[in-house]
Amino acid sequence: xxxxxxxxxxxxxxxxxxxxxxxxxxxxxxxxxxAALALERGLxxxxxxxxxxxxxxxxxxxxxxxxxxxxEVVVRxxxxxxxxPPEAVVGESTWxxxxxxxxxxxxxxLPGVPLVVTCxxxxxxxxxxxxxxxxxxxxxxxxxxxxxxRSADVRLAEAWRGLDPDTHAVEARxxxxxxxxxxxxxxxxxxxxLQTGAQRFWDMVRVTATGSAVTRTPFPGVAGLYRALETxxxxxxxxxxxxxxxxxxxxxxxxxxxxxxxxxLGPLLLRDLGIDETKFVKSSxxxxxxxxxxxxxxLHPTMPVVLVGDSGQHDxxxxxxxxxxxPGRVRAVWIREVRLDPGDEKVERLGPRxxxxxxxxxxxxxxxxxxxxxxxxxxxxxxxxxxVARAVTDEEAGASATTAGPERH
Length: 409
Hints:
The termini are far apart. Strands 3, 4, 5, 6, 7, 8, 9 and 10 form an 8-stranded mixed beta sheet that branches. Strands 13-12-11-14-15-16 form a 6-stranded parallel beta sheet, sandwiched between helices. The protein has a two-stranded antiparallel sheet with strand order 1-2. Helix content is 32%, strand content 22%. By secondary structure, the chain is α/β, with parallel strands linked by helices. It folds into 2 domains: 59-175, Immunoglobulins (Immunoglobulin-like); 184-403, HAD superfamily/HAD-like (Rossmann fold), CATH 3.40.50.1000. The model is unreliable at 1-24 and 403-409 (pLDDT under 50). Helix 6 (285-299) runs parallel beside helix 7 and helix 9 runs antiparallel to helix 10 (383-403). The longest helix is centred in the first third of the chain and has 23 residues, at 28-50.
């Protein structure tokens, strides 16, 4: 919003309150931001000038997995003029993976597209924003016993640029847990489920650019642990919500990764990395995660949750704030240890805050400790701990065998 660059902002997502001040208006970060903003606007203006109003060649409505309860659901997605990326296959070249990933980020979004979203008798009209996104809440009348997966219809609200609304529609899957569901898992993705190395920026860029849904690896044992948490001790299958600061451009990649590794699917709540007047990214890591976790807790008010993250960024601080804001809702907090400097004690200093709230926090380097704690809490059968421990050992051995050789360094 114009005119806000000089306002001080405070946030309490760390173990002590921080005050952030804006970059100096002539500083390098500020100048780089202004240059990037001008470039983005220039490219958008050029695209508008070249747009002759004809039908897009590769018009696509993308519907992300939504979620909610029988009386309220949220449905999100994007409209683009891009061909569907080919699926990753085993044995493809690194160059093929890089081309696919580049195409995900070189998206040709379509702003101003009129859509109508319907679900359970409710109907909402929406127009895509400047980045081609749509985001709606509906108030359907869904049967309580209709199953964990429902659907919404997303289509053109009217003829647009010669496109027929009846032939341009998609189904959005919507996760609606039943009333007897005893738990939900809210999990980070990078360096929690997916090995990313986010603290080493250029390593993260390299693996993101060159990897694919079939070559990227999860942390050992995480797939078995998450499957066991999903099935629990015999009740309804528990929902997973993946709250990540990764951009929406990676939605297809992450969905393919989860499927390939047989990790439970669920809503992926990612963020827009577009540039605005005041910052490079429209929402910060902490702000985005807090908003999305609050959304999950609001739309599923009777379900306790387990929060799973890593120690590399601000997950422990964010989760401490969630615990404070929502007493009685969090059964446990599990933090994967990935810090380059585990001795900084930033996570450990949060221990008293979790203790005061009566929420156990487990900080561990692998999935075995989380599985043991899940058994202790009665969330999974006793045999799960040993099964996950075996999986960690086997998968670590497999990874070592794959990487061993003269090129290892």
